[in-house]
Amino acid sequence: MQIKESPEQFDAIIVGSGAGGGMATKILSEAGLNIAVIEAGPFFDPANPKTRTQLKWPYESPRRGASTTRHFGDFDMAYGGWDIEGEPYTHKDGTEFEWFRSRMLGGRTNHWGRISLRFGPKDFKRKSIDGLGDNWPISYEDVKPYYDKVDKLIGVFGSKENLPNDPDGFFLPAPKPRLHELYYIKAARKANVPVYPSRLSILTKRINNERGVCFYCGQCSRSCSVYADFSSGSCLIFPAQKSGGQIRLYTDSMVREVVTDDSGKATGVIFINKNDRKEYKLNAKVIVLAASACSTARILLNSKSKVHKDGLGNSSGLIGRYLHDSTGADRVGFVPALMDRKTYNEDGVGGMHVYSPWWGDNKKLDFPRGYHLEMWGGLGMPSYGFGFGVNALNKFIGEKVGGYGNQLRKDAKKFYGAIIGFSSRGESIPMESNYCEIDSDTVDEWGIPVLRFHYKWTQHERLQAKHAHNTFEEIFDHMGAIPLGAKPDAETDYGLAPPGSIIHEVGTTRMGNDPKKSVTNEYQQLHDVDNVFIVDGGPFVSQADKNPTWTIMALSWRTCDYIVSELKKQNI
Amino acid sequence: MNRRDSIKSILLGSLAGGVALQGCSTEAPSDVGPKEITFPDYGRTPKEQLRDKELLNKVFFNEHELATIAVLCDIILPKSENFGSATDAEVPTFIEFIVKDIEAYQLPLRGGIMWLDSYSNKLYNKAFISCTEQEQYNICDQIAYPEETEPELKPGEHFFTTMRNLTLTGYYTSKMGIEALGYKGNTANVWDGVPEDVLKDHGLEYETEWLAKCIDQSKRADIAKWDNDGYLIT
What is the ipTM of this complex? Predict the structure, then answer.
């Protein structure tokens, strides 16, 4: 079987169409570059009625939205998940890592929580503060202009709070808190946990004539058909196409490797078309990898050549290393004051209207870094699982559990909207000993060697989760709420979620000034190969207690400006 | 219609459910074989669509099992003053699907129905569905309250709990159940805060300072513009 080579020479090939790849598509195409975008999944447009799930009812699914075929339920807009048939990954030494992939145009941006937080000044210089991990080679001031531009281009609601490590931006006004959020505000403050309007990339107000305004269905995880929330397709790729960009989309196309010439310079990529199962080669002056931190590491490690014996750009041996995810801990509570609620439409935006950025002082704590708090609750749309243990909470109010008959109707209504959940999402310490590597014993169905993960949390993360659980209980207490289930203890890592499960994995191609200690430079350019760039979460030196998407996009934009300027100077 | 009659009608309904779901497809010639059961599309990928189709056209429960499920569904959620019963909401059809979709349910439900009939044979010398309503209630009373079950009846308790869970979830995710629950969303609207009377009931109010950060919904259609410091000016 021969590789089919396209005679066309692109200015740039972008691998992956999520947040980083979408931004690169927009910026590079608007600079006049001729671009190929290669996506491993199908084409997807949130506005397409054929694939739309927004505003569907649970009974429109025969399984009532259960998560049998999609991991977050039938209506969630992620094609893929923790396990993809035919595309396995393996583990080393019995360690755990869960790898979530969305195979579709726009990737995970179609279903994510839209929590759009800037990293703060301290987040780029953590080593200077606590001696752990490493500093970034750049500072907040380097990224700030790009955060500003991302805010204005995409839209994010929030509020100016002038906090030291949670910088303000160009915000749209926030939605008013819902009832359970008012309860949270009151109780959290009593526990000395500050609360502010959350910061989500959802349009509470029009930002241009192309995208709609939020109509408060609370279903951002289904991807908005009027483009009122951010997804890479709706906000970056489609607008770039409409404004006349030279963009060739290759969907259902799985990149295997970056091809280099005898001098070691990249010349193109080889991908497998999933429909005809044949190999194709595309050529370009510049290769921009945005396949996600782990997929990009996999492509580079699978791109071995005479010049790059250990994989492309891997002279440091660090590709795949320093893999790290956010910490996560969760608890659910029953709020008796919210029993027997009057019902009204409080769907709101998709996600929480209020949140608590990290407030702690590490000098007084037994762990480094911090976490932010998210919460959920309310009179949500029922789906599969609603009514399980319908009156199990009766035991807390001295009433009978179980039974049958019309009493159950009263029970269902009594506890509807009386449950609140808290989640902490925090910063872990990146470790060289946590990594993904190529498993030469296993290939996926496209014949590509797969990733093998090795990951262990440290005591830092466990203690952070412990602290989070203490905080949850304190807030529940001030709410008059009853935390459900047992409080996790040391035996269960204090309820710390398995690595990968928060889906903020970053760090596999970290940036730095020293080519021996990092894979990319501050412009996310491989130290070893000057025409290969990485614009996903791979180059993150550390993750912060923020969600990575806004920083991925700001850095992607910054890198693309650099690419355009280097091309003009004929440096690459 | 009493419970027994309604169960007869839902059984017919369940078995005919596939036909009803076919919508407007034309009558197939009899030599083509059984009709294919379809379900209106809800944004599936081709692979998901194929899987749904396969499940819909498989049969798991036999008639007796389905009849027992229907009886139990309506014991668990009978008709109320304002709303129909679990079988009115076609919960048995949902249960038949979900056990094919989540296979872990198959053994506990099949075995549970058998357990129920064995116990009913022991007490009344007849299958559960042939018992009088009072006899059925007598059996349910012994397995419906987790704290109070006799140790030897634990298998029945587990089965009844599973049936209650599936009945409740099937009901409250149906059109009728959502109305009964009073869920008011899943529709385009403009969220402008908790209704005044609800705030009052809970002794809460919005702080002026917080409201100042919130959207003025009369300006939601105005295109956002900011000054250089990031303050919104539209």
Answer: 0.95
